[in-house]
Structures are given as structure tokens and as C-alpha cells.
Design a protein that fits this description.
Blueprint: E1 2-6, E2 9-15, E3 21-24, E4 35-38, E5 62-79, E6 82-92, E7 96-99, E8 103-118
Antiparallel strand pairs: 1-2, 2-7, 3-4, 5-6, 5-7, 5-8
């Protein structure tokens, strides 16, 4: 797991390998929660459900899961009224990139299939950088 921070802000997390066990990836305070699960055959994870609770979030966060191909991702942070590119990383088949703060741009480097997951409900709020 690789964390990308700008000053003290966690901007993104990249997962290239899943470690044994059930491991939280995002801090509990973030709107998008991710946990990796890697267990041997025969393991039983207790059945459970989640009781309805009121959750208020003010941030949209996204997760890119790379099924095929590869891409170069530019990560941006907001400084004042503008966004500034501060880091570039690459993702490939099997990788996961969780985008927690800021913005991003995608350069497809090999024919790609991604799954994008984000918290909702959907609101048209895209700001082009």
C-alpha cells in the first residue's frame, strides 16, 4: 500500500498487493471506507449486516479498480481557488487507487477497463481542472 500525502492531507492510497487478514485501508473518518480481505480457504467471516444510521458527508471520494490495462494518474490538490498537480503515479491490472481529497486526471497507457466506485447519492458537481 502506498499513501500519497500533500502536506498533512491524505490525497490518495494505491493498493498493489493485498496483505493477509482483514485490513482497513482508509481512515474511519473518511466517507469512503475500504477494507482489504485476504483469507485462506476454509476461513469463515461472521455473517453481519449494518444497522441504518444517518450519515452526513460533505466530500465525494472515488476508487478506481483496474481490471485490464494501465494508466498514468495525475493527482491534484486545491491551493487557494485553483488546483495544482503535485504527484503522478501509474496503475495497472489488479491495482486499486482510492482518491480521498483533491482531483485527478487519467492518461490511458494500455487499453483499459476500470471500475469506478464512489459515495453517493449522485450529484452533478464535476469541476474541470
Amino acid at each position: 500500500m502506498e499513501e500519497f500525502r500533500h502536506k498533512k492531507t491524505l490525497v490518495a492510497v494505491k493498493i498493489t498487493k493485498i496483505e493477509k487478514g482483514s485490513k482497513p485501508v482508509t481512515p474511519g473518518s473518511e466517507p469512503l471506507q475500504m477494507v482489504t480481505l485476504k483469507h485462506p480457504k476454509g476461513t469463515y467471516l461472521k455473517a453481519h449486516a449494518h444497522a441504518p444510521k444517518k450519515r452526513i458527508t460533505k466530500a465525494l471520494q472515488e476508487c478506481l479498480i483496474v481490471r485490464k490495462g494501465s494508466a498514468r494518474i495525475d493527482l491534484y490538490v486545491k491551493e487557494g481557488r485553483a488546483y495544482k498537480k503535485f504527484k503522478t503515479t501509474s496503475i495497472k491490472e489488479g491495482d486499486v487507487l482510492i482518491l480521498l481529497n483533491g482531483g485527478y486526471g487519467i492518461h490511458i497507457t494500455r487499453d483499459a477497463e476500470f471500475i469506478e466506485v464512489k459515495n453517493g447519492p449522485f450529484v452533478e458537481d464535476k469541476v474541470l481542472i
